[in-house]
Amino acid sequence: GAGVSQSPSNKVTEKGKDVELRCDPISGHTALYWYRQSLGQGLEFLIYFQGNSAPDKSGLPSDRFSAERTGGSVSTLTIQRTQQEDSAVYLCASSLPTLSGNTEAFFGQGTRLTVV
Amino acid sequence: GQQLNQSPQSMFIQEGEDVSMNCTSSSIFNTWLWYKQDPGEGPVLLIALYKAGELTSNGRLTAQFGITRKDSFLNISASIPSDVGIYFCAGQGNHGSGNTGKLIFGQGTTLQVKP
């Protein structure tokens, strides 16, 4: 597609339920990032996929959070047993790093998650 | 771990004034990116910097990649009301040496412009 696409754009869920957030990166982009942004805050790194390398999961806040990227394209971020503090905007970005490692990451519009 | 310190946290300026914000890092980066985020939107890339000392302009925006590779600044000249938003710096280090090359963001600078 022309840009990074995230779905749903908004999600309201009850505490304790599981949610899945989807990211469709720009076609051909090998790197994919997930970030979390709480209201009025900066971007908190969650996880980074780069090609066939093992993902960098160092930002995942707990074992309730997981992400996968199937076929090197679409990614799904799963939050199990959601808590109210999980409420935030979840942003996905993709990039096409060059051989020298340079990159320009482009963001989707985000998924606003509200846990009630 | 890698950290970025962005300042100032917020700015309230008069239309027409110039603006400057900067980011410093605890470690060396190979890439510096500057983004702008409007309410309810994802961040939009403004300027990308790939070389130490590089100075790049995009319209009224100018950004520089510090010589030490640990800092970058963004200047906005002759501000206008539509410059309002949150500006983020982001840095990416080398792959290897325990670093995966992920993109790290500063805390953001909130800019308000008074007409």
Fold and architecture overview:
- The complex is a heterodimer of chains A (116) and B (115).
- Chain A has no helices and ten strands.
- By secondary structure, chain A is mostly beta strands.
- In chain A, strand 4 (31-37) and strand 5 (44-50) form a beta hairpin.
- Chain A is globular and about 45 Å long.
- In chain B, a hairpin with a 5-residue loop joins strand 7 and strand 8 (71-76).
- The mean pLDDT of chain B is 91.
- The chains are: A mainly beta (116), B mainly beta (115).
- Chains A and B meet through strand 5, strand 8 and strand 9 of A and strand 4, strand 5, strand 9 and strand 10 of B.
Content-based structural category of chain A: mainly beta
Largest interface: A-B, 28 and 26 residues
The total strand number of chain B stands at 11
Order of helices and strands of chain B: EEEEEEEEEEE
Count of runs of 4 or more consecutive helical residues of chain A: 0
Gross morphology of chain B: globular
Dominant shape of chain A: globular
Query: For the report, how would you describe the main beta sheet of chain B?
Result: 6 strands, mixed
Average residue-wise pLDDT of chain B: 91
Helix content of chain A: under 10%
Topology:
The complex is a heterodimer of chains A (about 120) and B (about 120).
Chain A: E1 5-7, E2 10-13, E3 19-24, E4 31-37, E5 44-50, E6 65-69, E7 75-79, E8 88-95, E9 106-107, E10 111-115
Parallel strand pairs in A: 2-10
Antiparallel strand pairs in A: 1-3, 3-7, 4-5, 4-8, 6-7, 8-9, 8-10
Chain B: E1 4-7, E2 10-14, E3 19-25, E4 31-37, E5 44-49, E6 55-58, E7 61-65, E8 71-76, E9 85-92, E10 103-105, E11 109-114
Parallel strand pairs in B: 2-11
Antiparallel strand pairs in B: 1-3, 3-8, 4-5, 4-9, 6-7, 7-8, 9-10, 9-11
